[in-house]
Amino acid sequence: MVLALAKEIEMRKKELPIKDIVETIYFGGGTPSVLTIDDIQFLIDSVYKHYKVVENPEITLEANPDDLSDEKIIELANSPINRLSIGIQSFFEDDLQVMNRAHNSAEAKRCLEVATQYFDNISLDLIYGMPNMSNEKWLQNIETALSFNIPHISSYALTVEPKTALDKMIKVGTVPKLDDDLAQQHFHILIDKLQENGFVHYELSNFGKPDYFSKNNTAYWLGKKYIGIGPSAHSYNGVSRSWNVANNSLYLKEITENKLPSETETLSKTDQYNEYIMTGLRTIWGVSLKKIEKEFGDKYLNYLQKQAEKYISDQLLEVEDAILKTTKKGKFLSDGIASDLFLLNLE
Predict the structure, then answer these.
(1) Is the dihedral of CA 142, 185, 64, 214 positive or negative?
(2) For residues 224-237, average pLDDT
(3) What's the Cα-to-Cα distance from 203 to each of 127, 172, 189, 231, 294, rounded to whole Å?
């Protein structure tokens, strides 16, 4: 698999024009921390061999606490990896059991104690909207995260996937159904507490101290190009998106035969407009009305302004310096609002 990943990196180098420079390398999806340090180094070397890379790229590795032994953290600190994204999810044992996580609360804390000694740039994930989680308990989770002086936190509302252990527990009644009102309360507690502690809420699910925004995440939300390597990986170049086959065996077979195992979809003008609305409304940078007018034309601008009127009246959206943004009240609802601003009739 590692050799196949390196081969795909080489096969796709022509997709990036000479003027484009790689700014971030992100090991994510699945559990990339199972890779050895030699594997990680080999893949990073493959990127450097075939692409131009900025002088100090952000190189992130996603990992779970149970993967990060003291030895592994020290090894990673001696590698080119300069940012860790750690899937903590919760510091409470009962939450971790409901989510069927492999680590426990003690491992989560121990992992952060060691990681913060070797890495300056760390992000952790927290889940809110857990069944039976009081506001006080959620606040404790946030305060525990803050006690480690972590400069970046990503936080997501709990969702229930079909046929999971949580789905079954809810159906048999051992765990209560998810409560949207509770999730919204948790979201606003999170915003207030992190802003009190110097974090900027730069994207719906992402909070960073100044200079610690994820460059990888920011590039995605600002519509920059990216190449996804490996099974199920997605790529985007501004006018089309592609995705690799999800099956590992098929992926390996195609790469061995010098074929790219991917499908491509060309985005229409309307698709590109909808994409910009969706990503822009999730961020502090918002949606530029001037950009809409320049790149999409008056028809799109007029439609957007008309659709946005009711949300502006309800104080869920606001316009400042020709930038359309969600208000604090509207942030939690930004995905739903964005979908109502989409243009559905393709040109």
Answers:
(1) negative
(2) 96
(3) 16, 36, 16, 27, 24
Q: How far apart are CA 303 and CA 297, in angstroms?
A: 10
Mean pLDDT, the chain, rounded, equals 94
Q: Which of 155, 156, 157, 160 is CA-nearest to residue 176? A: 160
1: which residues sit within 8 A by CB, 6+ positions away? 230, 248, 252
List, for residues 6-65, the tens digit of each pLDDT value. 999 999 999 988 788 999 999 998 788 889 999 999 999 999 999 999 999 999 999 999
What residues pair up with 264 in beta bridges, in sequence order?
242
Specify whether the CB–CB gap between 327 and 318 falls below 8 A.
Answer: yes
Which residue's structure tokens are 């207030």? Answer: 192
In terms of Cα–Cα distance, which of 36, 46, 48, 39 is closest to 75?
A: 36
